[in-house]
């Protein structure tokens, strides 16, 4: 607490010194000059943006140079402000050396720090990370230029809380959070770059590409967290209580998350499901778009994206239409009139299905006569396709239309849905009595 009191006292002395300086006439003159410099810089930036077409100018440039040019264009006003203030400071030192120009110098340094930081962080495409880095870096630079970084750091470090032998201060918490954000972002950016390189390797299967990408991402993020924790001076042994509580939480409340994670690793290792496969899980039929640590994304034929937990893929029955090969066999059942010639029906059906575009020539389609029905002759038509990702219901529809056209052309009839009702002698007698009992309305009873 004594350290905190000393820091607060030092900050008060600095504030009083600044107040004394503000009372000087030269400080007011410098403030006026800064306002004029800001206005002139704003007018100059507006003229440059109006006359220069940045998109047309940077057309065909490399991506790095385009980002740098856009960052310069976005900060052209601040660049002009820094240049004008530097010229004014030089002129004031020549004309009135007694003025000092300390305020102009501080404004010039702050503006220069703003420009440099924004030019560097402007190369970051993630807008959230860009804002966080820019705000943090400029705040540190501004406090350092004004000579307040040391006192504020001491004030934040003077208040501490001991937790299991770990000294926790606001400065430690702030440093840890900022470094964690920066380290995790850097690890994610590096893992994305490595994943793109792995996905471009033609020698690796899709499931192995996903597995390597996930392991690389997990390893880099874990290393980034450990490096930040060690660099901030946190003893990992002091986190034993936290890790124990985390283990209990995994055992009671997070078992599903851990189960899905482990199931995802198993799926990637045994290659039973990989991106691009056509699968059926329950009522969901579609192709695997992405495999994540918790679930897979399956795009159905109607455009919906179904997220299926990895655990369900391990514990439930899954139909993989393209597990070892893309060719699959489809069956279409149909019946014809009992008076039809079954040999002719088989020949016409095979010729009709062979004309459908997606049906393969090899293996050749076949038609089997499977039974004598009460109202029809029953057949089973079997054919093969090699693109289940394009759908199976639609190709069945095309085959049925081809059968209809062929049967109509060949004069083969489809069984009629009309039922044949036969009356017994007792039923006929009852019907005649009922007809005789009906008396017309225009005749007397």
What does this molecule look like?
There is one protein chain. The chain has 445 residues and is an alpha+beta fold. The chain has 4 domains: 2-158, no CATH class; 170-253, no CATH class; 261-320, SH3 type barrels (Roll); 328-410, Alpha-Beta Plaits. The protein contains 16 helices and 10 strands. The chain has a 5-stranded antiparallel β-sheet with strand order 6-5-4-3-7. Helix 1 (2-22) packs antiparallel against helix 8, helix 9 packs antiparallel against helix 10 and helix 10 (206-231) crosses helix 12 (255-270). It is elongated. 16% of the residues are buried. The mean pLDDT is 76.
Topology, please?
Blueprint: H1 2-22, H2 25-51, H3 54-57, H4 63-74, H5 76-95, H6 102-121, H7 127-145, H8 149-158, E1 161-163, E2 166-168, H9 170-199, H10 206-231, H11 240-252, H12 255-270, E3 278-281, E4 284-291, E5 295-300, E6 305-309, H13 310-315, E7 319-320, E8 328-336, H14 342-354, E9 366-372, E10 377-385, H15 393-410, H16 425-436
Antiparallel strand pairs: 1-2, 3-4, 3-7, 4-5, 5-6, 8-10, 9-10
Helix pairs in contact: 1-8, 2-5, 5-6, 6-7, 9-10, 10-12, 14-15
What keywords describe this structure?
alpha+beta, five-stranded antiparallel β-sheet, 16 helices, SH3 type barrels
């Amino acid at each position: 607490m004594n350290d905190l009191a000393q820091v607060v006292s030092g900050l008060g002395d600095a504030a009083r010194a600044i107040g004394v300086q503000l009372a000087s006439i030269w400080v007011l003159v410098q403030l006026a000059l800064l306002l004029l410099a800001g206005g002139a810089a704003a007018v100059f930036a507006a003229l440059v943006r109006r006359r220069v077409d940045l998109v047309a100018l940077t057309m065909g440039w490399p991506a790095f140079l385009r980002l740098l040019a856009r960052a310069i264009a976005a900060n052209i006003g601040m660049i002009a402000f820094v240049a004008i203030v530097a010229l004014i400071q030089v002129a004031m030192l020549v004309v009135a050396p007694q003025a000092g120009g300390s305020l102009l110098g501080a404004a010039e340094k702050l503006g220069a720090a703003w420009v440099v930081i924004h030019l560097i962080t402007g190369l970051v495409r993630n807008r959230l990370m860009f804002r966080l880095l820019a705000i943090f870096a400029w705040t540190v630079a501004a406090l350092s230029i004004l000579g307040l970084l040391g006192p504020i750091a001491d004030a934040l470090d003077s208040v501490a809380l001991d937790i299991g032998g770990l000294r926790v201060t606001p400065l430690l918490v702030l440093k840890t959070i900022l470094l964690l954000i920066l380290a995790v972002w850097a690890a994610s950016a590096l893992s994305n770059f490595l994943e793109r390189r792995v996905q471009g390797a033609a020698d690796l299967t899709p499931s192995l590409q996903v597995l390597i990408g996930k392991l690389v991402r997990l390893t880099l993020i874990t290393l980034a967290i450990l490096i930040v924790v060690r660099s901030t001076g946190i003893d990992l042994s002091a986190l034993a209580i936290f890790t124990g509580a985390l283990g209990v939480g995994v055992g009671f409340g997070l078992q599903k998350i851990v189960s899905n994670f482990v199931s995802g690793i198993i799926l990637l290792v045994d290659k039973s499901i990989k991106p691009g496969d056509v699968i059926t899980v329950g009522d969901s039929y579609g192709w695997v778009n992405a495999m994540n640590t918790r679930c897979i994304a399956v795009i159905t034929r109607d455009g919906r994206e179904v997220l299926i937990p990895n655990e369900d893929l391990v514990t439930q029955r899954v139909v993989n239409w393209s597990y070892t090969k893309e060719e699959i066999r489809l069956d279409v059942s149909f019946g014809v009139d009992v008076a039809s010639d079954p040999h002719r029906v088989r020949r016409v059906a095979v010729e009709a299905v062979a004309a459908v575009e997606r049906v393969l020539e090899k293996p050749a389609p076949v038609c089997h006569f499977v039974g004598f029905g009460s109202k029809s002759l029953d057949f089973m038509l079997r054919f093969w396709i090699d693109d289940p990702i394009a759908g199976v219901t639609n190709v069945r529809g095309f085959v049925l239309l081809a059968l209809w056209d062929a049967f109509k052309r060949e004069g083969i009839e489809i069984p009629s849905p009309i039922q044949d009702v036969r009356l017994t002698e007792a039923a006929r007698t009852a019907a005649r009595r009922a007809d005789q009992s009906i008396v017309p309305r225009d005749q007397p009873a």
